[in-house]
Amino acid sequence: MTCPDTARPSPQPSPQGGGSHAEPRLTLRERWRAFRIARVASPAFQRWAAGFPLTRGIARKNTRALFDLCAGFVYSQVLFACVRLGLFAILRPGPLSSKALAVRLCLEPERAERLLKAAASLDLIARLPDGRWALADLGAALIGNPSVARMIEHHAMLYDDLADPVALLRGESGPTRLSGYWPYAKAAEPGAAGAEAVSGYSGLMAASQALIAEDVLDAYPLARHACLMDLGGGEGAFVAAAAARHPTLRLMLFDLPAVAARAEARLGAAGSTVACHGGSFFTDPLPRGADVISLVRIVHDHDDARVALLLRAAHAALPPGGTLLIAEPMAGTPGAEPIGDAYFGFYLLAMGSGRARTADELSAMLRAAGFAAIRSPRTRRPLLARLLVAKKSTARV
Hints:
Layout: H1 28-40, H2 43-51, H3 56-85, H4 87-91, H5 98-105, H6 109-121, E1 125-127, E2 133-135, H7 137-144, H8 146-161, H9 165-170, H10 177-181, H11 195-219, E3 227-231, H12 237-245, E4 250-255, H13 257-269, E5 275-278, E6 292-296, H14 304-317, E7 323-328, H15 337-351, H16 359-368, E8 371-375, E9 386-392
Parallel strand pairs: 3-4, 3-6, 4-5, 6-7
Antiparallel strand pairs: 1-2, 7-9, 8-9
């Protein structure tokens, strides 16, 4: 594929349209939008808007938003440094001086001060009137969610893969670090992955599932069911949370053989009784016996063809009237649009598989697999996970 130099603007079409195909006439709305864009793009207009009382606030807000987009990587690296150095855990017992923190962080005093001021500017910590530093709400929230800290450290691989985003988009970047971290993403036989290959990502999956398990169980209590099977259940975070809520619920877990073995050991050590099954849900039949199957942060990891196989396999494994749960971040979530299309769009591109889908797209795929009565109970934190509930028809085909 031959592409133009991205540093050079493409030639603009003639205002008259030219060529053999006339351009359609612009609507009034489109003409107004073109006029507005031309004004906003003008440096002279930008300078005027920044000083005019009625537009000054909007201009400054837009300037800040644009700068934040440019500086976002630096902000994320400040957060990464705080997590890697353990700043929030150090401050948990109480405020400390700059000098004491420099010693604890193993940084030169000037560089420690630089990090502390940066963290305070991002509302992660706060400087008290006496000059000491204390946790702010965002820093405290990270202590309460260790899985988020795991994800922040994990992002070091993503940042490497995004060093040249254009090469990534064009498929010219070569093997990415994330595609090696998630061995099932493009593997011809994902079930063949060994214990060493799955140890890192299965631990991260357990942490990320634990973050949202309670939200899913709040939105859809499992008391009405007899047996839950968690597909792609990792090391058992979701089934463990379900067991704590519903002690009489029978539990099953299905994941790659090496992951299922880790889950069996971990759950057994915790005293949980879970039937752990190893295999690939793309090539192996799923165990029967569950009247509810869950897919927690699994579907978005896979391309459409594999998702279709997965949903058909879940449908076949359920009895008539059985229930399927899909819980994951979804594209188009009001107030969280960048999560699906920007963050997961590029994360999953670097991973080599999958995409974030809207609730409507997932519902269409569920119907194509034979499910009906699809609904979306509200979750506490839809930014982290929305929920779709679907039923297998009781009618005999």
